[in-house]
Each structure stands twice: as structure tokens, then as C-alpha cells.
Amino acid sequence: NYKGWNIRAAFAEEFGPCIRIRYVRQTGDGDPKIKEHEIEAILNANGTGWKEVEIQNTHRGPAGMLESALRDVTSSRRFQGDNGLQATLQIGILLVLETPAAAELEGRTKAIKEQESRDAMPEF
Asked: Which of 29, 34, 43, 45 has a CA-to-CA distance to 83 between 20 and 30 Å?
């Protein structure tokens, strides 16, 4: 906790510096939403050239329309920095900054867990 914020950082030795940082504002004033000036301050402290980018739907048809509507209702937004960092505002209260290495590591970890799950399945 730091000055009204809960900040968590993830480090992976093989990738060097911090690969993911999560910011959640503590609710001292009753409003947990991260304000626009706070988003800008966090982004600018972590690089330059931040631009908001469109979040692509992962589904098509009615499911894609529902996905878009939910994203609008939950205040989800994505940003891209000149330094390769990506930031995602989730539900308006959680801001996650991550390097491309974070996604790579997450993908590898998921693949390992899926393989372990397949290996643990009994054969009939």
C-alpha cells in the first residue's frame, strides 16, 4: 500500500525488470473508480506516447455485441505506450500495466498447466 493505492508488481527473473504492475485505488473517499487524471499520471510515470486503442471482440455475432456492451458498461479500456507496454483499465477500478514478456510468460504457463492436466487424465 502506498499513499492510498494498492500496488502489486510481478517479476520474472528471465525477463529482467518488472513485467506487470497492478494499481487499485483504496476507497478512502467511497469511490473506488480510478479517475482520468490518475490514469494519465500512472501511464506517464511508466513511459511516453500512450494512446488509447480499441479492444477487439473475441466473439462474433450476438456474442460479440454482448461483449462490446459489457465492455462499455464495465468501463474497460486499453492503452499502448511507445515503449511496448500495454495498460488495461478493468471495471474502472483496476489498472494493469504489462510488458510483452508478461503475455509470453502467461501463455507458456497456461500451456504447461494444460499439458499437466492432459497428462493427469486417466486412460480408459
From this structure: 34
